[in-house]
Structures are given as structure tokens and as C-alpha cells.
Design goal:
The chain is α/β, with parallel strands linked by helices and 759 residues long. It is built from 25 helices and 27 strands. Helix 2 crosses helix 16 and helix 12 runs parallel beside helix 14.
């Protein structure tokens, strides 16, 4: 009997291999002709995996669905052995032997964890983003994963929203560049040439406008004009489609009063017809079911609307599985609509090579060799160092000297499970070094590092427990810990304070109404400052936070975000000057939470007040109780050296439509260290048929300058640079005057005037 089964398996394998050699269209046509209606619907069903018992018998609640051909894909099952066990059920026991797709949120690395995406964007280095995604793909595919729910390119203007951590900031241009870089790293040439064994199919999310959730709350409503959509929120999604992203995930929010999952204008008219997206579209977790909660209709109505809108796969609501047959029977949906969705799913499996070799992503030998390698650790360490943003450095206290006595204080100084940050689905914290361990190893006998936890995160234990989400930090007696910290601080030359958010205080379902430092930590920091010893604040965060008191009272501040598995070593590299900080902010940092949403590329008002104004002006667009504008603007970041910018020169002060002009500025390293400067290029359309932003990022360059060195940095200006989208998504180019700006950040630029003519 065993011999018979083995022979049958070999025959099926050979048939499958032969079949995949056929062109994709022909292969899919032949397969679909063999499928029952129920099997077709089954391909549109995505369910979460659970722990599997592997061996002689696979034990999983999904097995029965797989055997019946009622499951097309699985999420959250990882590990080569577990994935293979369930895949074997699909290819050996289901009638048509159609393999499964295995998906996972590999958002910023797998076992070797990279900085959170928000931090990665602060590198302003798309090559680093691509390299990090390439590394993540190599590791995840070794553990059976072939589909990645990343990148997230939701433009996020409101720091109260926790998922700011998962994206690339507030700017549509920068988000586009970084999202495309991540897709290149994940997919390689997979969508065009078929995926290699170490390439992942990327899934763009959340389509669309999720970053505009009202009041910064997850799963909340969004309401805006199409003009704003096309110019401020949709460009990163469009860029990702043009880059060939393999799949797209719908968002939880409504768009024009319709949940995105059921919005045909969004899914079909824009995504497929306007932009030409040809991959498959999956819902977010349970979102078809949530259409009922929104008040759209019952499960049957919601399932029908989602399919008609262009949704191909239902994640975890089972609405398609339960309702689509009845929808077909009563004509609510057509067989052609079901077939189109099935075709897209099967085409994805074909491109992934799963019909050729269902187990190509299940290699235990590769899994043992590919994860957390020395090479990958170095890559993660190098990228992390580029993401840190130096916000203040009074009297050049940084870099620290590798000598004397250092007091390392704070609840984030000796935690390892919080280093990866949110959405770390493959991390192994037991392998990672804490900041304390890394610093002591780094300094050896050159300096003394004394440590004290110093405080809890929050005084309220219930509140702290609520935000730890499986990544706790030990609690202690607040008074005792504070006293210990003060004693340690008094005996040190300098204090390094590791404070800020816990990892899960940002990310999904982590909205905050108060962006200041948590109460227990804030009290600790104030006590440390009172000692009179110089204090360096390493601010851990997954979003922009309020650092107004800190900016006024602390000697040096460096935002280290959540930098991944190599956080400790990367911090030492920069803190002690082996590497020069180069990170620049991709979100504006508010002075107070009440300024949110806060972003640089806003529209002007009829009664504007300049950023930085400390005087309240009645009947003007300002606040009564705070200095106007951000504490730290978009694009801001200091270095251990300094740079000066010369005036902007244009190759011509006028430009005709269809031609090109070059803008140039000379950048000089005026300090005493070599370094990399992020040179930023902005425009302003001074007068247009619609009101345009006060500034728009249109380009950037990372330039290495030795101390004393000067370089001319140029940016080309063409029709694309100066155009905008109308409310139908059509590009508009209008004659008139434009301010052309080059500078170190959005608030510090040199400017020249360019006139666009129609002649």
C-alpha cells in the first residue's frame, strides 16, 4: 500500500511539473475547467494557521478544509516542517492537488529583525530598504513563507495613529520611493520572470487611505475629496502598482461612505482600470464581516459586494466560503466574477512556482543556514545605524568618549523582547543583546558601565500590562528604583537614559491621545537632569512623540526608534562615534499632542501664521497656547559635523512644457568629521487652479562629504515635477511661477524662482 501511494505521488508530481511548463494562461484554463464551483470558491478562502502537530499525522483544524479543496491560502503558519506538513495535505489529499500559498507579516525582517519601517525611512536610503527586504525574503522563504503582507505605504499625518510605525512617514513622494524599494527587495524579478526560491510575493497595504483614519484611531472612518486622495494619499499605492507589486490588501476604513473592501471605484476603477494592476486583491483580516458591523448589509450582501468590487480573496471572515454559492444561485454575483477572482489566485500560485514544486519554500537545510547569519546581522546593524536621528546635541556632548564612568539608566536599557518593535513575527529575542549587554561588550575595560532600571513605564500597573502585548518589562517598586538610579547617576561622568515607548505602544491598535513620555519615565528623567550630570536621552519610539520638555532640559537627544535585533550594537556604533548619525525625520514632531495631525506639506490658509511664531495673533490661523509649527520639522536631523548650503541656481529661469531645467546648490561640510548629508529638493506651485501645498518634496540625494569638502548637487525639473492630479486622477500642468527649494530639511531651504511658460 505504501509503495502504491508513493508511486501515485511521484506520478502526480511529474504531471504537475509538466503542467507548469505550459504557458500560464493555458495552464490555468485547463485547471479551472476541472474545478467544481465549490473548489473555485475554496481558492478564494484564506484562513489563519495554528500550531501543527507534524509527523505521521498532521493535526490541524484546517486539514479538513484543505482536503476538500476549500482553502486557497494560509497565514501565520511558519517553519519549513509545519508548512510542508499542511502543503502535503493539499497536494496529496485534495482532489485536484492545488497547492496552498503561505503568507505572513514579514514587515521589517524575520529572525534577523530590521528597524521598524518608519525608522528605515529615516535613513533616506532606498538601497538600504531594498537590501533589508532582500534579507527578509531570504530568511522568510527558508521558513516556508512565500507571500508577505508588506510594504505598508499608508501616508500618515497623525502621530496618534499607532500604525505610523509600519509605514514611511507623512510624505507621498518619499513613501513611494521607499515602498518601491521594498517591493524590489522582496520580489526581485518574480512578477515578471517567476519567483525564485528566496523571493516573496509582496502585498501592498492598506488600500486605501488607512493612514487618514479619523482621530488617529484604528479601524475608523476616512472622508476626503478625490482631489486630496490623488495628490496626497494615493501616489505611493500607484507607484507600487507601477513597480509590479504582486498583490494588494484592502483597508478597514470607508471611502466615500463604502467600506474599502466593497468599494468598486477604489478596487476596480482606480486600481485596475486606471493603474493597470493585474495581481490579486485580498481583504484585511475579517473585513468582509466588518462590512456588516459598519452597517452596509448582512454577510451575504457584504460578500457579494466585495466580490463585485474586485476583491479576490477573503481573509478570515469565511464569508466567501459560506455565501458565494448562494449568491451565484440567486444571481447576486456571476460565475464570470468568481472565475476572474479564481484566475488571479491561481496565476499567483503559478508565478510562485508552486505547481512546479509545492515544497520549494520548505527546505529545512536552508532554514538552518539562512536565519540570523553573521552577514544578515551586519546588514541589520548597518541599516539601524542609518536610522537614528540626532535631535539635539548641546555643546557637542556626542559622540561620547570611550572612557570614564557611564550610568546606563531606564527600563529600555536591559530589555531584549522590546528591541524588535511591533509586528516582529519571526523574532527570537533570546538571541539578541540588550543595550546594556552590547555597551559593556563594546567598551570592554575602556570605561565602566553601571546600570539601574530606574522606573516602570507607567505608574499604573494595569495600564502598563495593557500595552505590553506579550513583551513585558519587569515592574518594581518605583521609589526604590528611582533612588537606586539617582545613586548610580551621581557616581557617573555621564548619564545615558533609555526611555520612551514599549514596542507594542505603537503598531496596530495602539492609538495614543497623549504623545508625551509615560509618567513614571518622565519623573525619572527629570530626577536625572536634577543631578546636574550631562544626560543623553535615547528615545525609543514607534511614532513621533512630544519631546518639548526634553528639548529644553536634556543635553542630547537621539531618536533610536525600535531598531531591531541589532539595536544594542548599532546604538554603540553611533553613540561613541564609530559612525556618524545621518538619519532625518520623515514625520513632523509636534510640540504638543493637540497639534495633531501635523505635517509640512499642508495647504496654506487665508490667514497664515509662520511656523516658529511664539506670539498669538487674534483672527489668524494659530493656537493660543503654543509656539506655532513643529518642534522638529520634516526632514530634520543633526550630525556630528555641520553643513552649509549655497544659493539655488537654475540652468534657466524659465521652462517650456516638454523641456527640462536643472536646479543646483553647493553643499559644504563645514565641520570636523566626514559624513553623509541628505540633500532635499522641494517645490511650491505659487498659483494654480486649485490650492497647492506650501511645500512638496520632489527629490533627495544622499551625499558623502569629507570634512571641508564641497559638492554641487543637482536636481532635474520636468513636467512631472511641476504637475499635480485633478479630482479624476489626471495629471495637470499649468503655467506660472514655482519656488524651487534645496535644503537640509523642510524648514531650512534656499530658494529660486522658476517660471513655466506655454510658449
Amino acid at each position: 500500500m505504501k509503495k502504491t501511494i508513493l508511486c501515485l505521488s511521484l506520478v502526480l508530481s511529474c504531471l504537475s511539473l509538466h503542467a507548469q511548463k505550459k504557458p500560464m494562461g493555458e495552464f490555468v484554463d485547463e485547471l479551472m475547467a476541472k474545478m467544481t464551483v465549490e473548489e473555485k470558491i475554496g481558492q478564494l478562502n484564506l484562513m489563519p494557521g495554528t500550531d501543527l502537530t507534524t509527523g505521521a499525522k498532521t493535526n490541524s483544524p484546517l486539514v479538513e478544509l484543505v482536503e476538500k479543496g476549500m482553502l486557497g491560502a494560509v497565514l501565520n503558519t511558519k517553519g519549513a516542517a509545519k508548512v510542508r506538513a499542511l502543503q502535503e495535505v493539499a497536494v496529496k489529499k485534495s482532489r485536484l492537488h492545488i497547492p496552498l500559498i503561505f503568507g505572513l507579516d514579514v514587515i521589517h525582517g524575520y529572525e534577523t529583525v530590521l528597524p521598524i519601517p518608519l525608522a528605515q525611512a529615516c535613513s533616506w536610503n532606498p538601497q538600504a530598504i531594498e537590501a533589508g527586504a532582500r534579507m527578509a525574503a531570504e530568511e522568510a522563504t527558508a521558513s516556508g513563507i512565500c507571500w508577505d503582507y508588506s510594504p505598508m505605504v499608508d501616508v500618515a499625518l497623525d502621530a496618534r495613529w499607532g500604525r505610523v510605525a509600519e509605514g514611511y512617514g507623512e510624505d507621498p513622494y518619499l513613501s513611494s520611493v521607499m515602498g518601491v524599494a521594498a517591493i524590489r527587495g522582496y520580489q526581485g524579478s518574480g512578477e515578471k520572470a517567476g519567483y525564485a526560491k528566496d523571493e516573496l510575493m509582496a502585498c501592498l497595504k492598506h488600500y486605501a487611505l488607512y493612514g487618514a483614519s479619523e482621530s488617529g484611531r484604528d479601524y475608523n472612518t476616512v472622508d476626503m475629496s478625490h482631489l486630496r486622495m490623488y495628490n496626497q494619499y494615493l501616489p505611493p499605492y500607484k507607484a507600487a502598482v507601477e513597480a509590479g507589486v504582486g498583490s494588494v490588501m484592502s483597508s478597514f476604513n470607508v471611502v466615500d461612505g463604502m467600506p474599502a473592501t466593497g468599494n468598486r471605484w477604489l478596487m476596480t476603477d482606480v486600481l485596475r482600470k486606471q493603474w493597470g494592476f493585474g495581481g490579486f486583491l485580498v481583504t484585511d483580516y475579517g473585513s468582509i464581516g466588518e462590512m456588516t458591523t459598519w452597517g452596509f448589509g448582512d454577510q451575504k450582501q457584504s460578500a457579494a459586494q466585495a466580490l463585485r468590487a474586485g476583491t479576490d480573496m477573503d481573509m478570515c471572515s469565511s464569508a466567501f466560503l459560506i455565501q458565494l454559492k448562494a449568491c451565484l444561485d440567486d444571481g447576486t454575483v456571476t460565475m464570470a466574477q468568481v472565475d476572474q477572482a479564481v484566475r488571479r489566485v491561481l496565476e499567483a500560485k503559478y508565478k510562485l512556482g508552486l505547481f512546479d514544486d509545492p515544497y520549494r519554500y520548505c527546505d529545512p537545510k536552508r532554514e538552518k543556514k539562512a536565519l540570523y547569519t553573521a552577514e544578515h546581522r551586519q546588514t541589520a546593524r548597518d541599516i539601524a545605524a542609518q536610522t537614528f536621528v540626532l535631535l539635539k546635541n548641546a555643546n557637542g556632548i556626542l559622540p561620547l568618549k570611550k572612557q570614564g564612568s557611564i550610568a546606563l539608566i531606564g527600563p529600555l536599557a536591559d530589555t531584549r523582547n522590546n528591541l524588535p518593535g511591533c509586528w516582529s513575527t519571526g523574532d527570537k529575542p533570546e538571541k539578541y543583546s540588550t543595550v546594556k549587554e552590547a555597551m559593556r561588550r563594546y567598551l570592554g575595560d575602556k570605561a565602566t558601565v553601571t546600570y539601574a532600571q530606574g522606573s516602570n513605564i507607567y505608574d499604573d500597573s494595569v495600564r502598563q500590562a495593557a500595552v505590553c502585548f506579550g513583551r513585558p518589562i519587569p515592574r518594581g517598586d518605583g521609589k526604590r528604583m528611582l533612588a537606586e538610579a539617582i545613586e548610580v547617576a551621581k557616581n557617573a561622568d555621564v548619564i545615558v537614559a533609555c526611555l520612551g515607548e514599549m514596542a507594542e505602544m505603537s503598531g496596530e491598535s495602539s492609538a495614543r491621545t497623549d504623545l508625551t513620555m509615560p509618567d513614571a519615565e518622565a519623573r525619572l528623567l527629570k530626577a536625572l537632569v536634577k543631578t546636574g550630570k550631562p544626560v543623553v536621552l535615547l528615545n525609543f519610539a514607534g511614532r513621533p512623540t512630544v519631546l518639548s520638555w526634553e528639548n529644553d532640559n536634556v543635553a542630547a537627544i537621539m531618536n533610536v526608534w525600535f531598531a531591531g535585533s541589532e539595536t544594542g550594537d548599532a546604538i554603540c556604533d553611533v553613540l561613541f562615534g564609530d559612525k556618524v548619525p545621518t538619519g532625518k525625520l520623515v514625520n513632523s514632531f509636534p510640540r504638543v499632542t493637540g497639534q495633531e495631525p501635523l505635517y509640512y506639506n499642508h495647504l496654506n490658509t487665508g490667514r497664515p501664521v509662520e511656523d516658529g511664531s511664539k506670539v498669538f495673533r487674534k483672527y489668524q490661523s494659530n493656537y493660543t497656547d503654543v509656539t506655532q509649527g513643529p518642534l522638529y520639522p520634516f526632514g530634520y536631523g543633526l550630525s556630528y559635523t555641520t553643513y552649509s548650503y549655497g544659493p539655488v541656481t537654475l540652468s534657466s529661469p524659465t521652462m517650456k512644457a516638454g523641456s527640462k531645467v536643472t536646479a543646483t546648490a553647493t553643499i559644504t561640510n563645514t565641520g570636523n568629521r566626514d559624513g553623509d548629508e541628505i540633500v532635499q529638493f522641494y517645490i511650491r506651485d505659487r498659483f494654480a487652479s486649485v490650492v497647492r501645498p506650501v511645500k512638496e518634496l520632489k527629490g533627495f540625494q544622499r551625499v558623502h562629504l569629507a570634512k571641508g569638502e564641497s559638492k554641487a548637487v543637482s536636481f532635474d525639473i520636468d513636467a512631472t515635477t511641476l504637475s499635480y492630479y485633478d479630482s479624476e486622477g489626471k495629471a495637470v500642468l499649468e503655467p506660472g511661477d514655482f519656488d524651487i527649494m534645496i535644503g537640509a530639511n523642510s524648514a531650512n531651504v534656499q530658494s529660486a524662482r522658476l517660471t513655466l511658460t506655454t510658449d
